[in-house]
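Researcher: Structure for this, please.
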Amino acid sequence: MSVSVPAATLNIVLNGFFEDNSFVSGAEATAADADIFNALSAAPEASVFPHLARWHKHITSKGDAINSLKAAEAPVAAAAAEEDDDIDLFGSDDEDVDEEAEKLKAQRLAEYKAKKEAKGPGPAAKSMITFEVKPWGEETDLDELEQMIKGIEMDGLVWAQKGQRIPVAFGIKKIQINATVEDAKVSTDDLSDLMMEFEDHVQSVDIAAFMKL
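Model: Predicted structure, token format:
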């Protein structure tokens, strides 16, 4: 009987196996190594699965010779493929999954989770937004308006130190100002609505540019 496992668990188990073994069987690469290599969807991350990554790098270095290894054992590999497309990780024909193999999977999975938790959460996703705020007329005090805009405070919001004055028409200028926001904490729509609340000063608010950091 073969045992099917998720890709992440497969990497954990194989990493543990290759910690003490150079190849799947024996002292040289065989068709079994080719089968395992082709079953992996992507190269393993060396920092998480160092032993599996070492084996994967060695097999990759063989280039087209990987296919030769598989061809040399083609009858056996073909028979195994017809019987079951899954990978037999534990070499067991029993109907019950080997208890020791299950313990190994659980141990490796726990180690992997512990490493991830030790790294802590990744950096917060951020964006830089360029707002263009158009006043009602040339008599609007843009310095005062900019201070009102920068007076909007939110967790995860940082305004640029200085906005720019961009000519529009007939002596009217608009304010162009950048804001860096944490995507999970700050909504661009909320920011625009808050600026529009300065209704005696603001005619319109547009987003001129939006860039993920």
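Researcher: Any notable elements?
Model: Residues 133 and 205 are 5 Å apart (CA to CA). DSSP finds eight helices and five strands in the chain.
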